[in-house]
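ok so i was messing around last nite and threw this chain in just to see what happens. nothing serious, just curious
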Amino acid sequence: MDNRQEELSKYRIQESKNSLKVAEHCLNEGLYKDSINRSYYAAFYAIKAVLALGTIDFKRHKDVVAYFNKEYVATNEFPRELGRRLGMLKQLREKSDYDDFYIASKEQAEEQYHTAEYTIENVEQYLKVKGIA
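result:
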């Protein structure tokens, strides 16, 4: 791992935290679909912070999540619950963004916000063990 990878990882975790702040703002304003979207991106950027430390990266979201689950969740680097929660978050983000008639509830938005928090906490703990953070 070189310095550029560490810097990219730090940048991505900061983007993750910024997205989480926006998700919280949207949640407080009753913009539940937008909150779910930003919660997803908060988790997505956190996962990308982990991938930045390796030699592989992906452009497509489904590839990022699939690789993370295969290489990090399935190998117990991260809890299995994280993989399950990320799957639900991804599914709800897609509904929020692409289903015109989907109405997100406050409870769904709160749950996905907490999933993003949980993801960031786990990633930060992982980065700390790796000497980054």
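not much to say yet. The domain at 3-129 is CATH 1.20.120.330 (Four Helix Bundle (Hemerythrin (Met), subunit A)).
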